[in-house]
Amino acid sequence: MTDDGPGKPFEHLWTPYRMAYIQGEGKPTGAHDCPFCVIPTMSDEDGLVVARGATVYAVLNLYPYNAGHLMLVPYRHVPDYTDLTAEEVAELGAFTQTAMRTVRAVSGAHGFNIGMNQGSVAGAGIADHLHQHAVPRWGGDTNFMPVIGLTRVLPQVLAETRTLLAGAWSQEAAEQAVPVRGA
C-alpha cells in the first residue's frame, strides 16, 4: 500500500496487459495495418468475430468495458457514418438489434450503451475505420472495482464469450431472418 493523499492509503491493482494498448502498440497508422480490415481475413476464433454479414461484421472488443462488449464494423475502411451506403446503414442497424437481443439472451443485460466516437477528438481509438460499440450494462455494474480500483472484472475469457455469443447469434439471426455469413 502507498499513501496517495492525506491519510488515505490507496491499493493498487495491476493490469499490465493494458499497457500495450495505452502505449499505442499495435494501433494502426493507416489503412494498411487497420485491425478492422485485418480481422475479417482471420478465422472467427482468432479474430473474435461473432457474426459476419454482407457489409458488416460483429466482433468482441479486445479491451472490453463489460463482458459481451461488441463492436459492429463495416468491412469497408471508412472513417465517418456519413460515408456508409444505405445498405451498410441498414445492416449496421440490424446487427445492432441482433447484438442486443443476443447479449440479453445469453447474459440478461439490463441495458446497453450504443455509440460511435467519430474522429480522434471525439475519443475514437481507431478513428480511420468506423465502428459502433454495443456495451451491455447491468444494475450495479459500476461498482468499486472500476470506480475506485480502475479495473474491470470480466467473468469469462474472450474466446469463451465469442463461442457463446456466436452460437446464440446464429440462433437469433435465424429467428429474425437476418442473413449471417459464417459463424
Structural class: alpha+beta
Helix content percent band? 25-40%
Number of domains: 1
- Please give the largest β-sheet: 5 strands, antiparallel
Radius of gyration: 18 Å
How are the strands ordered across the major sheet?
3-4-5-7-6
Return the CATH architecture. 2-Layer Sandwich
CATH topology term: HIT family, subunit A
What is the 3D shape? globular
Q: Any idea what the CATH superfamily is called? A: HIT-like
Mean pLDDT: 80
Distance between the termini: 46 Å
Q: Could you name the CATH class?
A: Alpha Beta
Low-confidence stretches: 143-153
What is the N-to-C succession of helices and strands?
EEHHHEEEHEEHH
The number of E-state strands comes to 7
Description of the structure:
The protein has one domain: HIT-like (HIT family, subunit A, 2-Layer Sandwich). A hairpin with a 3-residue loop joins strand 3 and strand 4. The strands form 2 sheets. A 5-stranded antiparallel beta sheet has the order 3-4-5-7-6. The chain contains 6 helices and 7 strands. With 183 residues, the protein is of the alpha+beta class.
Outline:
By secondary structure, the protein is of the alpha+beta class. The chain is built from six helices and seven strands; from the N terminus they run ββαααβββαββαα.
Keywords:
183 residues, alpha+beta, HIT family, subunit A
Itemize the secondary structure elements and their pairings.
Blueprint (H helix, E strand, L loop, with lengths): L1 E2 L5 E2 L8 H4 L12 H4 L5 H4 L1 E4 L3 E5 L9 E5 L11 H22 L3 E5 L16 E6 L6 H4 L10 H19 L7
Antiparallel strand pairs: 1-2, 3-4, 4-5, 5-7, 6-7
Helix pairs in contact: 4-6
